[in-house]
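Case study B.
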Amino acid sequence: MTAAAEAQPAVVRTPKEIRRARILGVVYLLLALFVLFVFARGAEGDATFGLARPTDRFLNDLQLTLPAAGVAYAVAILLAFAGTVQLIRGLGKWTNAVLAVMLIFLVFAFLAWAAAGKQFSLVGMFRTSISLGVPIALGALSGVLCERVAVINIAIEGMLLAGAFTGALVGSAVNSWIGLVAATASGVILAWVLAVLAIRYRVDQIIVGVVINIFVAGLTAFLATRIMEPNPGLNSAAVFGPIGVPLLKDIPFVGPILFDQNLFVYAMYVITAALTFGLFRTRWGLRSRAVGEHPKAADTLGVNVYRMRYLNVMMGGAVAGFGGAFFTLGSVGRFDDNMSAGRGFIGLAAMIFGRWHPVGAVAGAMVFGFADAVRIRIALLRPIPSEFLAMAPYLATIIVVAGLVGRARPPAADGQPYIKE
Amino acid sequence: MSDRIEDPQVAGEPEGGEPEESRGRKLWADIAGFGVDWRAAVLVPVLAVFTALVVGGLIMVLSDVDILKKFGSSPLGALADAWTLVSDAYIALAKGAFGSGEAISETLVAATPLILAGLSVAIGFRAGLFNIGGQGQLIVGAMASLIVGFQFSLPSIIHIPLALIAGILAGALWGGIAGLLKARTGAHEVITTIMLNFIALFLMRWALKTDFVRVVDRMDPISKPIEVSAQLPRFFGFVDGNTLRIHLGFLVALGAAWFSYWLLFKSTVGFEFRATGFNPHAAEYAGMKVSRLFILVMAVAGAMAGLAGAGQILGVHRQVVDGFQGSIGFDAIALALLGRSHPAGVVLASILFGALVAGGRIMQARTPIPIDLILVVQALVIVFIAAPALIRAIYRVRTGEGTAQLTRGWGS
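Model:
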């Protein structure tokens, strides 16, 4: 193993890197075989991808027609090539970029195989991806806010669920805008509980999170039975429909996907941008990150560690509560027991996936939303065991936390209570 | 407010009391292996459960629109109504939990998987690992014992142990994956076990659609039933027309609790588990192979949860349908905390929670209070157990140290 490294003095590689490159190489080759035998041989006819909606202003019949088998052969060749290069000399700093591109090709080959001989609306699928990804993304952003100040937030799930319930209840009783405010407030209240227990009483943060999740699951189901079931009028809120952004929504393909969505999607853009700017370009961000990395040093320099933690955790609660309202006010208008269905945990995973960066977290959430959308949409086209697709995001998260795709490094003080001396 | 934690009365307690009393307390702690004084072991749990039930009662009243309206016109009448509502609910709960032979049987049936899953989390806590993966380990354990249960036809004396062992091994494997990932790559067990829960859930849903597992002539995903020879016998199965569901699994669970006690407090491996839990660096320095211990701890924890799943299938459900798992794996966290991560404590806590579940079903059937209230009560119990400072603030009693830091952040 070391002999191979010494033979190429130009690129110094550690044994670990060499091993990783080889594992990836073998994985690529196996994937190439898989694509060859399953997708290329199993596909007949052309796959027609719809790239526009009939209601779009420009190019509303835009389509992409490709021979499914041809796509699969091309992808198999690319995968085999990448695998061979990995095995022989490794891709060095390009490893992750190539991996991402290869995964995109792989998904494309899969879609072509699934849609072979049929019509498949890519625009529709990406729109679904975004709406499935939004609550995950807002949950992930909540996680970023909390963990950047070293408070672990497992309670994202509970905050989403509380937001969904409060949004539906208040949204039905008063109106949807007040419902949105109430949903946000419910997240803040839970975050305050998390903050008090984690910061003041120094209770184990993961346990507090688990407790909040159980509490919210029980309380919302209890209140839904006690209050909403006898009064159906309290569980039918008006839904925020999609609003097109003038001009931008008319861009072919991209417009309908990104700029003809409801207010939760736009809020997600704004929060992501604000957080990215805030965390890395403002005094507040610098202080937050200092508190998360080295609270003692921050304290010594006069930053109020406790106040920063309270502030950010409650802001995180607001984002998650708002995100939870998406389930009711942003999609169906009525609350069902446990309707967040583990999205908060996926949000947590997306945050790790995105390495505690707002943009990364949202991108991670969108990948999970996409996987979910593929599962739902493909199930209509071909009878495949969709459970394996549903599993993919969780497997991907394990692969990421295990450091198989680079190392994800959390804030240094994450999860540790701070004791002021 | 943060100075409350360093309340000198509490901090100085081990040395502060009379010598005789502290010796007695130490003896008690040694015998029971609690490592904390009696206040933390008995007083706090009792007060925590009591307070949680009171808050649960408040929630019942606050969620009753009629009573709330009545407070405006006749406050006393509203109070009387509120009292009737809460006392009816809790009386129904108590009757459903302990009011008859059947009620007690149902309580113990509900407690059986909770004991095993609680042990799973408790063993992890003792070694400094947080096993949130009980749910997934329970599912794979149940599936493994199901397959052994319907695939073979053997005499009961062989079939039952075989099916149980299959569940144990599957759970150990599922937990061991998380342990292996932690040992080899440092991946935090909280994240990996949460993810493995979902993977196990989807694997089960997939399996329930395959012709090997499902009942072929039924549309809904439900598994084949296990052979009669694999069913765990019921205690009173020899009586004609027996309706009591309590089964041999309860004794298996008690045996597992005894085994856990022996493992944690009497065996060398258990000593290493606990040493790792106190301080993994020190344990490593003392020559223990901590990374190997991580794998072993998670495998043992997984085995317990897998056995819980196996017991549910062989003893209660006798086939698998999605949802059989309930939230046992999550309730287990509450049980380990309530039982102070001690096997005896876990057994008592599980019987209490089993009573809440069995009683909660009767409460839901006979009064307008849905069983979801039990989840709220459970969550409140954990809060008060994990933050005894809250109990201290409410009741003005000494409570001893809390469970301040059981787990470690993602980073370390």
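Residues 156-185 of chain B form the longest helix (30 residues). The remaining cases will be described in the next quarterly update.
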